[in-house]
Design goal:
It is a single chain. By secondary structure, this protein is mostly beta strands. Helix content is about 10%, strand content about 40%. InterPro entries: Bacterial_rp_bL28 (IPR050096), Ribosomal_bL28 (IPR026569), Ribosomal_bL28/bL31-like_sf (IPR034704), Ribosomal_bL28_bact-type (IPR001383), Ribosomal_bL28_sf (IPR037147). One of its GO terms (biological process) is translation. This is Large ribosomal subunit protein bL28.
Length: about 60
């Protein structure tokens, strides 16, 4: 599965619990977006970044 380029966040597995306490497997997926970023050496690269890292300004988008 895909992971965030910055924080390496990826899908995790858990259970969904119904009102009658039945448990079903499910997947919690991060909100990954494909963005073109500027690398430290000045080049650009298209990577998958989670929205939490985008909002925090941990990457510089290439325009």
């Amino acid at each position: 599965m895909a992971a965030c380029f910055v924080c390496n966040k990826k899908a995790v597995y858990g259970k969904s619990v119904t009102f009658s306490a039945e448990r079903n497997s499910r997947v919690f997926k991060p909100n990954l977006q494909s963005v073109k970023i500027r690398m430290p050496d000045g080049s650009t690269k298209r990577v998958m970044v989670c929205t939490k890292c985008l909002k925090a300004g941990k990457v510089v988008k290439a325009v």
